[in-house]
Amino acid sequence: MARDQGQQLLAQVRRLGVPRRPLGDLYHFLLTISWPALLALLVGLYLAVNAVFAGLYLIDPAGVLNLHGGNFLDAFFFSVQTMATIGYGRMVPLSVYDNALVTTEALVGLLSMAMATGLMFAKFSRPTARVLFSRQVAVHPREGVRSVVVRMANERANMVVEATLRLTLLRDEITLEGEPIRKLYDLKLARGNTAAFALTWTAYHPITPDSPIYGATAESLKAVNAQLVASLVGIDETFSQTVHARHSWTADEIAWDVKFVDILTRTPEGMVIDYRRFHETKPA
Description:
five-stranded antiparallel beta sheet; 14 strands; 30% helix
């Protein structure tokens, strides 16, 4: 999945006073980078390691049969054959030095192959949720009460069982001591969980007098840099593993006095979902 808004925000944060340990969190880094970046990194390391061993073989070129006059390409391809245990037999180590080097490279190749296989399997098998969130949050009456409404859809043709949704409001405030803080409020949903999230889910928070946004307007929310964050957690029935998804909306993405158009229709053949209109709204 593409990096969401939360990851983009974290990427913009400068951390001062925290020592950087790139190698200490290497596994997490390799799991979170994109597939093209990971493949490019593995290919680059493979070529670099073989180039290093080629240079080591050139220290004693006479110790490898048919390594013509210190030719780097011959040494490089001999290194590739050794690391992959191909063994064509045209070039053979003769000296003790080159035999020791072949032994070392064979071990390096075995360990690197195991680590690369494990890393790619872990990245490939990591469960992810494909949840589509509406581009906007709609505010309109629901069950006779003005409500904050968000819409989600499961893009996979399976179910997320025991799905739980949390909706949080973040806004800037000033404490009684005059200190600026970023405060979080959990918005109570009319239904915050579902036994099976298969198609779409429209969740809403009634703006009652005890709601943190009771009496708020578009202008007042922009003034306090308000932000809504939705977090969904459930169990993917295919993998039987926990998956999660989240999305955030700024105050500019809260649409007042509109509601989402209906995208579910029933036909004699069954249910039809029109994802082309998923983000569309109309006057409430």
